Amino acid sequence: MRVACFSVAAMDFFPQQNASYAGGNSLNQAVRFRQLGHNSAFVGALGTDEAGERIATLLNNEKIDTTVFLAISTRPCISYAIIEKGFENA
To answer: What is Dmax (Cα atoms) for the chain?
Structure first.
């Protein structure tokens, strides 16, 4: 099966844990389809900043087709997650 995932990829920052992870629905789906053995492509935009480079490296390491994505010279999608003690992500 050949799969193309369209949308955004984001770098999620968790300042309380001093950690960051690449994410976003399309990115996650492209990675999972590839890990299941399907040909997978990510179609979207990535920034040319450090976060965009980390996401591009992840896509390349996972052997996801990135021939149809746009590199833009901004920080397109970054999120910060603050998790309060005693609360869970629902």
So the answer is: 43
- DSSP codes, the chain: -EEEEES--EEEEETTTTEEEEE-HHHHHHHHHHHTT-EEEEESEEESSHHHHHHHHHHHHTT-B-TT-EEESS---EEE----TT----
What fold is seen in the domain 2-80?
Answer: UDP-N-acetylmuramoyl-L-alanine:D-glutamate ligase (3.40.1190)
Residue in 60, 1, 74, 75 with CA at minimum distance from that of residue 27: 60
Taking the alpha carbons at both ends of the chain, their separation in whole angstroms is 32
* Residue range 5-58, pLDDT digits in tens: 888 788 888 877 888 888 888 888 999 999 999 999 998 888 888 888 888 899
Give the relative orientation of helices 50-61 and 25-35 as an angle to the nearest 10 degrees: 20
State pTM to two decimals.
0.74
